[in-house]
Amino acid sequence: MNKQAVRAATIATFAVFAINGFVFASWAARIPAVTRILDLTSGEMGLLLLMIAAGSVIALPTAGTVIGKVGTTGTIRTGGFTVAFGGLIVAFALSQHNVALTAVGLFFFGIGIGLWDVAQNIEGADVERLLGRTIMPQFHGGFSGGALVGALVGAGLSALQVSMSAHLLVIVIGVSISMVIVPRYFLPETANSGSQQTQTTTALKGRSAWSEKRTLLVGLVVLGAALTEGAANDWIAKATVDGLGTSESGGAIMFAVFVAAMTLFRFFGGGLIDTFGRVPVLYGSLGSALVGLVLFVVAPNMWLAGLGAVFWGAGSAMGFPMGMSAAADDPARAAARVSVVSTIGYVAFLAGPPLLGFLGDHVTIRWALLAIAVAIIASILTAPAAKPLPASEYQGAGSH
């Protein structure tokens, strides 16, 4: 493969990760505005947001089949245009103050995000394989960086009182343009996951990846990592305010500390995997997350809690991208396996934090966060499943 083509594919893949994070976070930052426009309670808004989760959970298991039919480039574009379509519906629905139509738009938004996510991870794994070095964490760092920029843009537009409908229309236009241009620089489909024909055969006719022991164990590794990240995104600020009696700005600073640690470690952690191997780094990452979580919960002051947030964020950085790389070890089965592992991870990412909120009503959200430790320990116990597959085991991992 031409080095220039691989370099272009690397940049394009980083771009689609960053755009994905930007789109999702810029929407999330405006959720208070949507709640106000539709005159919903927090509980009602929570139910409305479940439409995104429902769309993603439906799309993720089918993404392998879609990739088998149209390739990663076609799937990225399908996902991106579906996100744009959903955003267009939501923009119109908000202008009409229509809750039901907003729900429909968010459902399509979730479908698009799900397809987009699986396809970008497949492309990332293929690029990583051709480069011969670990780069998947940097792609996920691009997502985190894009999300940070998206949140800042959303907050800025909110401060400027730019309407949510206008905001969404700009996102729709931006996503549509990027989906036309950026995927042109992806790897050719013949170099992508062993060939489109092989993908179709394995994704549609082969044994279901849901029946493969290794794939499910890798899914458990990702489950713990996704729950750890998702719970921090949703609850670390509130846990700081409620548990340490600090201001809302103090809670926001704690969240920023967590995100910064996670993003930086994603950008610079790839070398550790190349040096020490995937499983040892998983042990170190998950151990760091566990220590950081416990320290954050029991810390008597902001400084120690902040140190806990650093360890927690750094430990949360690598589990998800390493799980994606592990699922994609066998190029011919990558689409089906990444689809399964992504589904398990996203269910934890989307469903776990609300369950922690329910538990927090009984024991406070700060102490409820300790429940995550159970998932982290489960991920540590299943980490050996992420060991890279030797070429001799390709297309046969499910039998072990």
Automatic annotation (TrEMBL):
The keyword Membrane applies. Signal peptide: none annotated. GO terms for molecular function: transmembrane transporter activity. InterPro entries: MFS, MFS_dom, MFS_trans_sf, MFS_Transporter. GO terms for cellular component: plasma membrane. It comes from the Bacteria. It is a multi-pass membrane protein. It holds the Pfam family MFS_1. It is found in: Cell membrane. Keywords: Membrane, Transmembrane, Transmembrane helix. Its main location: membrane. The chain crosses the membrane at residues 47-67, 74-94, 100-119, 139-160, 166-187, 215-232, 252-269, 281-303, 309-328, 340-359, 365-386. Residues 5-387 form the Major facilitator superfamily (MFS) profile domain. This is MFS transporter. It comes from Arthrobacter psychrolactophilus. The lineage of its organism: Bacteria, Bacillati, Actinomycetota, Actinomycetes, Micrococcales.
